[in-house]
Amino acid sequence: MTTENENQxxxxxxxxxxxxxxxxxxxxxxxxxxxxxxxxxxxxxxxxSLASRGAKVGLLDVDLxxxxxxxxxxxxxxxxxVITSDDETALLRPVSAGPNLCVMSTAFLxxxxxxxxxxxxxxxxxVIKQFLKDVAWGDLDYLIVDxxxxxxxxxxxVVQLLENAxxxxxxxxxxxxxxxxxxKCVDFCRKLALPVLGVVENMSGFVCPSCGERVDVFKSxxxxxxxxxxxxxxxxxxxxxxxxxxxxxxxxxYLECFPETETAQAFETAIAKIVSKxxxxxxxxxxxxxxxxxxxxxxxxxxxxxAHFGHCETxxxxxxDKENKSITSTEMVEPxxxxxxxxxxxxxxxxxxxxxxxxxxxxxQNLFKQQKxxxxxxxxxxxxxAIVSAYLKGALVxxxxxxxx
Length: 405
Hints:
Helices cover 37% and strands 24% of the residues. By secondary structure, the protein is an alpha/beta fold.
């Protein structure tokens, strides 16, 4: 029987969680009915893709007995304590996993990463509560929660403690053995009034990288059929790719390293559908306004267009009025230290909608495309104002792309 003091303590904890999570726009659980279906891989790549689009993302690993998110993201640092400025509460700072992405996992808190975590239900509930209440998540667009397989203590605790989660992404493989358990996940969500954002069918066929032949190792289409029968959205079929396994073992971003693969495109299809369900569509007035305003990034060396965007000294960030074909402002900014795949994200955060460069490889162009930044290559080595003015007037003469790697 709970005492009045205990009831008050629990009420205070719920209020603290609500206050902390009030700074998070969308809370998404990644669930699976069965282990081994690639749920953590989907959660990690979902978080990485959202972060690469400029969203501020937190990734919470509540797979307490088998935390794999740190390995998948290549992070191993221990979280630091930070004192909040408002009430001087000591909180844990989540570990950075790159631009716009922070992570928390039990793996960070264990002295021996190989030690077994032997906890009963009440202890699991307490730890998850602390992850939500005592971690300095800050302002986030998304909090992605990677849950263990099944419908047990961990996902139940998260849903009940969050109270207003945005929804769940459910991961399955195509064969009936996995799908039968995934049906229970859908039932779990419905009983807890948790919206199902959609089903991902992972390991859906294997495309031979040498000959292009497709082999359905675990069959194909089972997840899609199940989603249709249960009347929940279907997000995408994701093929098996050995490079995805390698990226996970190496702790690197598969979507960033191999954006042109069929598997990467399948991931992007799923993620685009999730974003469309969580972010409101702009009204026509806002869309027209955005079309008329454009920020063009020009990579410069010695004040003129750099031959290759990745080797420039500065970027000229030029705001334009497309309707009047005029430049409204120019700002010179220094790029961050060189890091593969960083510049597209950085320029997107700066508000760039187009980059005009002398040369750019095809992989980099794909990364800019993912950030919704248009690319013009082969521009002449001129001043940034002259290049943009010529482009706005339709008079920019583009030559050969001086880089294709």
